[in-house]
Amino acid sequence: MQKGLLSLRPSGVFARVLIALGVVFLVLGVLGSVVPRTPILDRQQAVIFENEKLRVVLDGIIEGLNPLFVRNGILYAMEDHYLYVSTDGGETFEQRGKLPKDDDSFLAKMKDIIARNRWVRSLRRNRSVENLAVLPTGTIIVVYDQVYRSDDGGMTFHSVFKYPDDILPPFMAGLAVSPDGDVYFGEYDADARPHEISILKGENDGRSWREAYRFPSGQIFHVHSLIYDEYRDGLLIATGDHDQESHLYFTNDDFQSLRELGGDSQDWRIVSLVPTKEALYWGSDNDRTGAGIFRWDVQKDSLKQLKFIGTPSYFSTWLKDGTVVISTAYEPRSEFTKSSSPPPTIALWASRHGQEWFEIMQYDSLAKLDPNDPTRASFALPDGDGSLDALIVTAHYTVNNDFALHRLELEWKE
Predict the structure, then answer these.
(1) Which residue in 226, 203, 233 sits closest to 273, CA to CA?
(2) What is the pTM of this model?
């Protein structure tokens, strides 16, 4: 019996191998925790769309980055709790700081070290932070489990606002920044109807927060986003979800008054939109009968559907040359999907002048593998001032290039 037990002990060579492996894993763990990631574009240079008017080249991809905001040609992205900044249009990124933890106990610190390890993060696929804004001063605001602020370019963050028990965080890409540096977001409450919905305002360069407006119970279901309209010098507020809850509001006096531009139909169920001098453009969030791309003429106060796109749209953006881009999502459990059985795909749509639209990229959704999975595949587009030459987009929950940032070059031939 003793001999059998002794035979199970590792030999000297085997023990040294185990020790060596342990050292290797320890070194990798330490490196993964302290060595910053330096994302660089994996060049592709593949033509993914071309016709007589437009040529689109996939310049390259970067795994795991989620682009969130653009200001003055600088692109801000998140991966897990880490901020990354690109000053060359999305070709390379510099890792800055990360969001802090409230709990400073030893156990919490150890859990955070493991969770933030680069190799551990590479195994996860979650969208994590989805709301970031950069103020005119350069101050960075991140709205996540609470509101964080950085005034040193994102090297360090600290909490400036914790949600009260009766306040919920915003939907993705739901922040708006005014020229004087105030930042706004509305609650995304998906609990049972009816309920009141608040809009929060950050003042004093994002240091102090208060309620700016409250929708009475039953008027809307939740706020999808707030958008600053530089051409009308005011805030646009998009709400949903039922017909009578879907509206587009406008205020140019800090919510002393609130004017409805349109609503009471799925055409006005908007998550994101692009303001121009003459019109507003959006892809609707109509998951009932199918979404479309719409143009609202500001002067004529008229709404026109420009293109039927089927599955709902969550994101929109624009480029330095005025190109407007809208993306679609795939919702496996929506009424439209169940009744019309659209292909389980997501798409990018682009327009030079807002009237003619081209589908420039399409990916298969992972959600097609399980119709009951609530996961929603989408192309995420950065918010901000539209000051990039190239289109930056990240695919989420897709068969190919899942959670990869794409850099696309759009060349108009007219």
Answers:
(1) 226
(2) 0.89
